[in-house]
Write a structure and sequence with these properties.
Elements: E1 4-9, H1 20-29, E2 34-36, E3 39-40, H2 45-48, E4 55-56, H3 62-71, E5 74-75, E6 78-79, H4 87-103, E7 108-112, H5 122-143, E8 146-150, H6 159-166, E9 174-179, H7 180-185, H8 190-197, E10 201-205, E11 209-210, H9 211-217, E12 233-235, E13 241-243, H10 249-253, H11 261-267
Parallel strand pairs: 1-2, 2-5, 3-4, 6-7, 7-8, 8-9, 9-10
Antiparallel strand pairs: 1-13, 11-12
C-alpha cells in the first residue's frame, strides 16, 4: 500500500477574491504540506487582476513552483478539468497542463469528462474522449506524468461509467482521481467505489458533504465543485488527499505521513 498525504485544493479560496499566491500562503498557515493548484488556458481578467486563484499556463510555470517552495508546500497535482469529449476545447489545454506539470516536477494532472456537446450521441462522445485522452497520454508518457480521471458529469457518475472511460486508452499514464463528494452526490457508495479503484488511484479529492446538501441533491446531480467543511456532515473526509501509488516515482520520492487508505476510511 502506498502512502497518503493530505493537502488542499486552491478552490478553497475561490470566493475570497485573492490571487494564487495568497491561497498558497493561507494553505501553509493552516498547516497543510501539499497543495493542488488550478491552471487555465489563455488569459482572463479576474486572475490577471489578482482577484482569482487560478494560474494561466501562459505564465512561467515557475511562478507556481516558487510560490509553493517559498511557503514550504509540495504540489500533489495540477487541476486541469475540461470536457474530454470536446477536443477543440480540452485537447491543447490538457496537453499544455501536462507539459507545465513536467517542467516543475508535478506528478499528476487531474481532469474529468466535463460537459458534453449538446448534439453528439453517447457513442460519439466516447470516441471523442478516447481521442483527447490518447493524445494527452502520448504527452504524459514521455514526461512521467500521470493523468487522474475524476468522476464528474454524465457518463462517469457511476463506477461502470468511469471504468468505461478509463479503459478507452491503455496507458500507464492514466489513473483515477476519485472524488468522494461527486461520487456520494451521484448516489454511489463511496467506500465500495474506492475499493474498486484503489489499485489505479493516483490522487483523491475528498470532500465534506453537509446534511442539507446531501438531502437536497443526492441522486440528482453528478458532482459538486467544493464540499462543506463545517457543521454536521454526511460524508466527512478531508479535501484534497493525495495517494501515491506504491512502486511509482512519486511514491518512492515522497516522504510524509504513512497511512493506509483503509485507515482513513475507517476513521471518517
Amino acid at each position: 500500500m502506498g502512502n497518503v498525504f493530505i493537502g488542499l485544493n486552491t478552490e478553497f479560496s475561490r470566493s475570497s477574491d485573492k490571487p494564487f499566491e495568497w491561497a498558497v500562503e493561507k494553505a501553509a498557515q493552516m498547516g497543510f504540506k501539499y497543495i493542488e493548484p488550478m491552471v487555465h488556458f489563455g488569459r482572463e481578467l479576474m486572475s490577471e487582476a489578482g482577484y482569482f486563484h487560478t494560474v494561466s499556463m501562459f505564465d512561467d510555470p515557475y511562478r507556481i513552483k516558487e510560490a509553493c517552495d517559498k511557503a514550504g508546500l509540495k504540489i500533489s497535482a495540477l487541476q486541469a478539468h475540461g470536457p474530454l469529449g470536446r477536443p477543440e476545447v480540452h485537447g491543447e489545454y490538457i496537453k499544455m497542463a501536462i507539459r507545465v506539470a513536467a517542467e516543475i516536477g508535478v506528478p499528476v494532472v487531474n481532469t474529468d469528462e466535463g460537459v458534453k456537446a449538446k448534439w453528439t450521441t453517447e457513442e460519439e462522445d466516447h470516441v471523442l474522449i478516447k481521442y483527447t485522452l490518447q493524445e494527452a497520454a502520448f504527452v504524459a508518457e514521455r514526461r512521467g506524468v500521470v493523468i487522474g480521471l475524476e468522476p464528474h458529469a454524465q457518463y462517469s457518475k457511476t463506477p461502470d461509467g468511469l471504468d468505461r472511460i478509463y479503459n478507452l486508452v491503455k496507458s500507464p499514464a492514466i489513473g483515477i482521481n476519485l472524488d468522494t463528494g461527486n461520487a456520494y452526490l451521484a448516489g454511489q457508495d463511496v467506500y465500495e467505489w474506492l475499493e474498486r479503484v484503489a489499485e489505479r488511484l493516483v490522487h483523491l479529492h475528498a470532500k465534506d458533504i453537509s446534511v442539507e446538501h446531501a438531502e437536497a441533491e443526492r441522486g440528482k446531480v453528478t458532482g459538486t465543485p467544493v464540499g462543506c467543511a463545517c457543521g454536521d456532515s454526511r460524508h466527512r473526509i478531508f479535501r484534497g488527499v493525495w495517494y501515491a501509488r506504491p512502486g511509482t516515482a512519486q511514491s518512492q520520492a515522497s516522504q510524509g505521513i504513512s497511512l493506509r487508505i483503509a485507515g482513513i476510511v475507517d476513521e471518517v
